UniProtKB/TrEMBL annotation:
Protein name as it appears in the record: LysR family transcriptional regulator
Entry's family note: Belongs to the LysR transcriptional regulatory family.
PANTHER family xref list: HTH-TYPE TRANSCRIPTIONAL REGULATOR YBHD, NITROGEN ASSIMILATION TRANSCRIPTIONAL ACTIVATOR-RELATED
All copies of domain HTH lysR-type, residue ranges: 1-58
Gene Ontology CC annotations of this record: cytosol
Keywords: DNA-binding, Transcription, Transcription regulation
Ubl conjugation found in the keyword field: no
Single GO molecular function: DNA binding
Keyword Transcription regulation attached: yes
Amino acid sequence: MDLRQLAYLVAVAETGSFTAAARRHHVAQSAVSMAIARLEQRLELKLFERQERRVRITAEGEVLLGHARRLLLQAERAEQEMAELRSLVSGEVRIGIPFMLGSYFFPPILMAFKHRYPGLRIQVEEAGTRALLARMAQGELDLAILIASDLPAELVGERLVREEMVAVVGEDHPWRGRSAISLPEFFAEELALFRHGFYHREYMDQLAAEAGITPRIAFESNLIPLHKAVVRQGFAVTTLLRMAIEEDADLYAVPFSPPIHLDLCVAWRREDPLSRANRALRDFLLEQKG
């Protein structure tokens, strides 16, 4: 017996008709009838009682029907797994990354992933947290790096890295060399901050509101190089993740007191199973967790 015969058997049993079974499989009714007849001949069993307007499965047919459904399901799963294996050769992954991580943390990790799976196409979207959340909700991204404490109920995440948020000053600033500064000290300075829509900005606004302080914002920009240039020239101070200035010899990180840490996670939609390719990327990222 072959899978085609078993599929016809299931269709006839479920529809009670050779004609309806043929329509389900887009074949002629004679093809279904002949396949069932050959199956009965091979097994030397009667599988259906042919009545005038209805076909009724026999007790022997019921036994085979259970096996047929299991075998067809196993065949479908095998095809799905083979398709997923092919996806690791020629599939696509779509991930959203916040600007700072995209510039300073992820490039070497993504290159290592590409080296492991050279056939995969990697689509990277850099944006603010709110934009990434919207793209995840719309199904435009499969994975995103987000603030763990900020995940909506429809997303699930696993912690990837903990990073410190620090004040950033230039060489001539009096805070250079300080072990820590308070939030009121920070908000009293001329500031360069991200625009609204970025978690980094919204978090600083929240801290200022909790302290009853109105920040003195001199520059608003989503361009990290502009933030750094403003700080170098002494026009303002800013706040970035510590990783963002590790390679800048003329910029200095000053911790907050108490310290501010952000837990970043790799997130995916709770009710939307990831493809094998996206699971491979998620698992690879978690191997690198800090």
